Amino acid sequence: MPLPTPARRARAAGYALAVLALAGCSAGEGVRDDGPAPTPSASVTASPLWPDHPGSVAPAKPGQGFHARGPVPGVTVPDGDLTRIEGVRLLAADPATDRAVQSGLKECPDGPSCRLRPPAYADLTGDGKRELVLAYDDLGRTILWVYTAVGEQAHAVLEYAGRPGTSAATLGSDLVVTEPAGGRNRESDTTLRWNGSELAPLPAASDPAKGASKARPSRPSDDSLIQPAGTDGPGRD
After folding, report:
1. Are 172 and 225 in contact (CB under 8 A)?
2. pLDDT along the chain (237 residues), means of 10
3. CA 135 to CA 165: how far, in whole Å?
4. Rounded distance, CA 122 to CA 146, Å?
5. Residue 230: C-alpha distances to residues 52, 169, 226, 235 (Å)
6. How is the chain split into domains, by residue range?
7. Beta strands in 93-171, from DSSP E residues, in sequence order
8. How far apart are the first and last CA of the chain?
9. What is the pLDDT at residue 32?
10. 40 prior amide bond cis, ω within 30
């Protein structure tokens, strides 16, 4: 075999350097084929650590967050006429009535300590029949209820807890609830309208009475649906 000449040795060294350079590219930052790109995984929803623990709920404002309830058990409304049943009996039979109110109803309707106002009636659903409106002056609050008749059953379509002295009036088929509002001889009004299943507050933008603040009259207006306790007026026997 002939001995390598200087030229052959130079060419062999060049080939070796080329092979090392290619190897360095494949092991470094050079372009390489790693196979098909991985498929992005689908997004996942958060898993709560305590799934059975309900989140906190902000307290509802008076008159809001109410949902129409089922019929009051054990009470029959003859001919669907709510004027033919006693409000005391209806509230006492309604399982949703507050326990403190239930206890206070024992003094009604004729007891000296009865805080339930005489019943009032108005067509608030537009069906030509009058709903029953009740008001109870509890300690530190006044509660209003509205019941409607469905066949011969009574359904609550409003329960409104307001400040002491809260009253109400009708404006067409709307119910306008009036509450004392912070200052002396001041009051605020909220309009509630039938929505097909309950009496719900109108949004402020469309409520003709929302945010109204005016001097309290010296006596209830003639169209007042519910009179303050101890006064004579419509709806009082």
Report:
1. no
2. 51 48 47 54 43 40 66 96 96 95 94 93 94 93 95 96 91 91 76 92 70 40 47 40
3. 10
4. 10
5. 49, 17, 11, 13
6. 78-226
7. 120-122, 131-138, 141-150, 153-162, 167-171
8. 136
9. 54
10. no
Nearest by Cα to 130 from 187, 63, 84: 84
- What is the dihedral sign for C-alpha 114, 98, 188, 121? negative
83 token code pair: 């004027």
Q: How far is CA 86 from the centre of its chain?
A: 30
- Token pair recorded at residue 198: 């309950």
Tokens read off for 133? 């409106």
Compute how many other C-beta atoms are within 10 angstroms of the C-beta atom of residue 214. Answer: 13
0.70 exceeded by pTM: no
Q: Sheet containing 153-162: which strands, arranged edge to edge?
A: 120-122, 131-138, 141-150, 153-162
Which residue in 188, 154, 175 sits closest to 80, CA to CA?
A: 154
* DSSP output for 167-221: EEEEETTEEEEEEE-SSTTEEEEEEEEE-SSSEEEPPGGG-SSBT-EEEPPSS--
DSSP letter (8 states) at residue 204: G
Residue 49 tokens read as 């650590």
Q: Are 142 and 120 in contact (CB under 8 A)?
A: no
